[in-house]
């Protein structure tokens, strides 16, 4: 795995949603580095990728309330344990659970294993609320997938949670999760 600057020069075999991610970032003038790799489905595989990226390892969880009327994208450090009760209290939404793959695709144009903050560029109706654990904001870099889990990006945290999120027309809610029982 080797860190590359910017978009791939050869886009053969890459999905449209991945190319749209590069187009989006390039249009904003956001600098980013990229690593191409085998599909990453677990945090263990992501840890190896993130060592090369040198970025905050994020778990991206796509959640919903019981009625499936409110959807959330939660970004937490990869080494933190997610406790629904702790988050539910902070956002005023009881009975959180993982949203379905169908809803993930409908709102973010992302499939399981590829959940990423970049999927919010596909949420034109602002159906998904972005929740970011405060510890994610402490690092210089944040890592994410370009809407597919065969590549990973490294973007400056200040760019991601500044101009990138703003261009997606989303706000973020900062939460404080301890990961403790």
UniProtKB/TrEMBL annotation:
Keyword Ligase set for record: yes
Signal peptide span: none
InterPro entries named among the record's database cross-references: ProX/PRXD1 (IPR040285), YbaK/aa-tRNA-synt-asso_dom_sf (IPR036754), YbaK/aa-tRNA-synth-assoc-dom (IPR007214)
GO molecular function (one): aminoacyl-tRNA ligase activity
CDD domains tied to this protein: PrdX_deacylase
This protein's UniProt keywords: Aminoacyl-tRNA synthetase, Ligase
Ranges where the YbaK/aminoacyl-tRNA synthetase-associated domain occurs: 37-160
Keyword Ligase: yes
Family: Belongs to the PRORSD1 family.
Full protein name: Aminoacyl-tRNA synthetase
Organism: Agathobacter rectalis
